Amino acid sequence: MLYVIGLGLGDERDITLRGLEAVKKCDKVYMEAYTSLLSFGLSSNGLSTLEDLYGKPITIADREMVEEGADIFLSEARHSNVAFLVVGDPFGATTHTDLVVRAKKEGIQVIAIHNASVMNAVGVCGLQLYRYGETVSIPFFTDTWRPDSFYEKIQRNRSLELHTLCLLDIRVKEPSLESLCRGKKIYEPPKYMTIPTAIEQLLEVEQMRRESAYSPDTACVGFARLGSEDQMIVAGSMRELLEIDFGAPLHCLVIAGKTHPVEEEMLDFYSLKNNFAE
Amino acid sequence: MLYVIGLGLGDERDITLRGLEAVKKCDKVYMEAYTSLLSFGLSSNGLSTLEDLYGKPITIADREMVEEGADIFLSEARHSNVAFLVVGDPFGATTHTDLVVRAKKEGIQVIAIHNASVMNAVGVCGLQLYRYGETVSIPFFTDTWRPDSFYEKIQRNRSLELHTLCLLDIRVKEPSLESLCRGKKIYEPPKYMTIPTAIEQLLEVEQMRRESAYSPDTACVGFARLGSEDQMIVAGSMRELLEIDFGAPLHCLVIAGKTHPVEEEMLDFYSLKNNFAE
Questions:
Q1: Which residues form the signal peptide (chains A, B) (predicted)?
Q2: Which residues of chain A are within 8 Å of residue B266 when distances are taken between CB atoms?
Q3: Residue B115 and residue A117: Cα distance in Å, rounded?
Q4: B13 interfacial to chain A (CB closer than 8 Å)
């Protein structure tokens, strides 16, 4: 049996009772490392708060292991209970869908235990979830690679008066280009896109395209560490948010479409003036 | 302090550890009744499983109470810790946003504790969450009231190759027309739209409009009791799902846009042939 268990967004206390019960039944516990090392008190050496809570060791499964080494834990799951822990909800990322497909194909029973994800927790800012269009991803621009397919999607959402959730790039365990050339993988330090970087890139693309999908005056909401006790949520124009230090990752950004009165009242609590008056 | 706590989708074990801690700190516990009476073992007489878990009584707050009688629990929240429990995630419904806005305006500190909602849990079927367009609501048609604004939204999503989540109508504590005429409120029994009813209405509108937003052959996924142990998920065409008895509420429906190979592999596990072979 393979349990795919969402841990939610904050820390070890965001697991559900159902999720915790399942972990306790499992013989082996894996945890995806893609985003998890951030908030869950896990480090490569030393017991984590999660391990204390579960009373058993956790094996960190990085992306390579999930994609290439899945055979190991699938064969374990055939004969025993295996937990695969995922930050947020289990089905936020394609990687986990792949794993579930493989397990099911091999006749392994899979039980998913849901939790909050960024996709629904952004509702906290007051912009109604049913008024979002397609979600976009903003990748880190490099000197030679500046993909901007997000532009049309934002443009379309805004022309339909819909809000847009922008997921910001995370680069964990990327082999450095230099090391690849030398034939030996050395990994870059992890890199998480900040809200100001995302906005810089967004505005750069707008300046190139000049189709007024958005502007420095467009209303946005920046979220850092959403769901944690020290989460930071600020509503303001792109120009305003560009100047704000949101602190530690993860960050994400919502570009507002047309807002309704209740949405505006709620956003107001997160506006610059109210945020920094407290 | 007002804690707005998401309970998740299944039963009492879907609360998070953080949510349970908060409930235990509260002097007064309210629970929205809009959808909650279904799955959480609550009845008007008799102790519920939730009350057993929390070790304290729960006051059911129906829609009227939340909208009209909010003064009571806001005044309590000024001087003590009050929990307001919500099925799913706290910000799934506008009603709760209203309540939070009112509390914040009165200077009451509000803490939201997130959980899974239908909006992200539908990810379990394999259709990727970032490929959904705007969410639509399908209201019960009556003889005189057949609003079909969902049609253009579905049409638009499908022309963009995006999936559409359809939330199906829930009518709880609606005064009967007859009783209103007599000047005394008598409530209709609760009514929950089933997947076949939703599809009938969808096809009726398509027959009227004839703009091919979708057809009886369009691929869909029906979800009943999503997140519960007895959840039922079936992928099939509208024509196929029309014939299926999904059992007890709540139901929701996803109309697929263009599907990718990984999405198709996953959907296949939920197809009619695989669903009823088990």
A1: none
A2: 97, 100-101
A3: 8
A4: yes
Question: B213 and B158 in contact (C-beta within 8 Å)?
Answer: yes
Of A235, A218, A232, A226, nearest in space to A272 by CA? A235
Rounded to a whole number of angstroms, the distance from the CA of A18 to the nearest CA of chain B is 5
Interface mutation target, options B117, B136, B164, chain A, most CBs of A under 10 Å: B117
CB contact under 8 A, B9 and A114: yes
User: Residue B227 pLDDT > 80, yes or no?
Assistant: yes
Query: Cα B12 from chain centroid?
Result: 16
pLDDT of res. B35: 61
Stretch 23-82 of chain B: residues touching chain A, C-beta under 8 Å: none
Number of residues assigned to chain A: 278
Say if residue B92 carries a ligand binding annotation.
Answer: yes
Encode chain A (278 residues) as per-residue pLDDT tens digits: 999 999 999 888 999 999 999 999 999 999 887 665 555 655 555 557 888 889 999 888 877 777 777 888 899 999 999 999 999 999 876 678 888 999 999 999 999 999 999 999 999 999 999 999 999 999 999 999 999 999 999 999 999 999 999 999 988 766 666 776 777 777 777 889 999 999 999 999 999 999 999 999 999 999 999 999 899 999 999 999 999 999 999 999 999 999 999 999 999 999 988 876 54
| Interface test with chain B among A2, A115, A131, by most B beta carbons within 10 Å | A115
A-facing residues of B in 143-172 (CB < 8 A) are 156, 160, 162, 167
**Cα-Cα-Cα-Cα dihedral of A78, A82, A84, A89, to 10°?**
90
Q: Which two tokens stand for residue B204?
A: 């009726």
Binding residues of A: 9, 89, 92, 117-118, 168, 226, 251
Contacts of B177 (CB under 8 A, 6+ apart): none
Q: In the prediction, which pLDDT does A47 show? A: 59
Q: Which residues from chain B sit within 8 angstroms of residue A135, using beta carbons?
A: 129-132
What is the residue-wise DSSP string for A115-127? ---HHHHGGGGS-
List, in order of start, the domains of chain B with CATH numbers: 2-116 (3.40.1010.10), 119-269 (3.30.950.10)
Task: Say if residues A256 and A162 touch (Cβ distance below 8 Å).
Answer: no
Which residues in chain A are contacts of B108 at CB distance < 8 A? none
Question: Nearest-CA distance from B230 to chain A in Å?
Answer: 12
d(CA B265, CA A111): 17
Query: Could you tell me which residues are beta bridge partners of residue A3?
Result: A83, A111
What the block records as the tokens of A51 is 């391990």
